[in-house]
Each structure stands twice: as structure tokens, then as C-alpha cells.
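Section 3.1: Structural characterization of target chains.
Under the original work plan, the team committed to producing a structural model for every single-chain target entering the pipeline before any wet-lab resources were allocated. The record below documents one such target. The sequence was received from the expression subgroup and is listed exactly as submitted; it comprises 123 residues.
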Amino acid sequence: DDEKINLYKNETLPAFEKMCADAGGKWLMGTDEITQLDLTFGAMWDIIFLMDKGCYADVGEKLKIKENAPNWVAYMERFRAHPILKDHCFIEEASEAHGIRSRAWNKDEKCQLSLDVLKGCKM
């Protein structure tokens, strides 16, 4: 849905970018270590961050997150690489499996993340 993608690109993504830019290369509270705020936002952003490739590559092409939100991208790369978090982030294979399922879902119904879709995804 191009309208929702444009809304996200023009309103939501800039808010994420500002939060990360305001943190000045640190965690969201300006700290050297992660806080509950990072765990809350990072986990939510993790799924969105992976929507730049695979079956959602067309969305990534429209958003151009690396150009439009470089601080957010750097934050997410750091979040996903954190020694404590890296084994618990959303797996790219699982993101792709969910994306394929979502894209085929009836547009009039909400498509929830399903554990059945995640079976077989490597950790």
C-alpha cells in the first residue's frame, strides 16, 4: 500500500531517525549500555528493519532507509550485533517466511505472526 509506505517514510521513519540521532551514537537514553527503552524499541524496530530485502525489497526500494535514516540503520546494526541480544533478534529467514505469508494474506484480515511459519527457520 503506497499510501501507508509514504506515510511511514515521511512521518514515522524520520521520528525513528531523530531518536537515534539525538542519542549521538549511544543507546536511546544517551547511555553507554542498553536500557529498557532500547529493548522495547529495538525489538519492535527489528522486524521493520528487516523489511528492506527479500520479499519486501520493493518496500525497501521505496523507503531507502540507508539514505533516509542512516542513524537509525547504524543503531539497528549495533542493536542486532549486541553480544547479549544478537542471538535473540528476529532471524532474517523468519522475517522472509513471515513476509511471504503476509504478502499472500487476505488484505481484509490482519496477518499475525505465526509460530507455524517460523518452524524450520535456522537460528
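Helices lie at 2-22, 36-49, 57-63, 65-68, 70-81, 92-104, 115-118.
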